[in-house]
Design goal:
Number of strands: 3
CATH architecture: 2-Layer Sandwich
CATH class: Alpha Beta
Distance between the termini: 42 Å
Number of helices: 6
CATH superfamily: K homology (KH) domain
Family: Belongs to the RbfA family.
Pfam family, one: RBFA
Subcellular location: Cytoplasm
Order of helices and strands: HHEEHHEHH
Strand order of the largest sheet: 1-2-3
Radius of gyration: 21 Å
CATH topology: GMP Synthetase, Chain A, domain 3
Number of domains: 1
Keywords: Cytoplasm, Ribosome biogenesis
Subunit structure: Monomer. Binds 30S ribosomal subunits, but not 50S ribosomal subunits or 70S ribosomes.
Helix content: 40-55%
Largest sheet: 3 strands, mixed
Strand content: 15-25%
Shape: extended
Length: about 130
């Protein structure tokens, strides 16, 4: 369970990373759309895990570019939050596959052959 301080720190980093990917990293990202879905910060605030959702471009190639540019991204983050925090955390980026998993589950559910409930069954359930 994260402390309030960790949660505040994580939210700040999530917001700033989102803006960095949206505005300042166009050369890195290209026309792709990157969403920072979640950030988790270590108890000592020295390490942050950022989960990214990548749309429009090739996710693996874009993710590799982002992973290779960690130092530049951390430097941009330091420019933005350096005056309000003591520690600029080391960053680790991970792909967020929750959207792909949700699509997969939708497909599985849609393929299920579930018979419709008869009216008699519905009346018994209401009693």
């Amino acid at each position: 369970m994260e402390s309030k301080r960790q949660q505040k720190y994580a939210k700040l980093i999530q917001k700033e990373l989102g803006e960095i990917f949206q505005k300042e990293s166009r050369l890195l990202v290209g026309r792709g759309m990157i969403t920072v879905t979640r950030v988790m910060v270590s108890p000592d605030l020295g390490f942050a895990k950022a989960y990214l959702s990548i749309l429009i471009t090739d996710p693996e190639q874009t993710f590799d570019k982002i992973d290779g540019a960690k130092k530049q991204i951390r430097h941009q983050l330091a420019k933005r939050i350096g005056k309000s925090v003591r520690i600029i955390p080391e960053l680790a980026f991970f792909p967020d596959d929750s959207a792909a998993y949700a699509q997969h589950m939708d497909k599985v559910i849609n393929k299920l052959n579930i018979p419709k409930a008869s009216e008699e069954d519905g009346e018994e359930d209401e009693s």
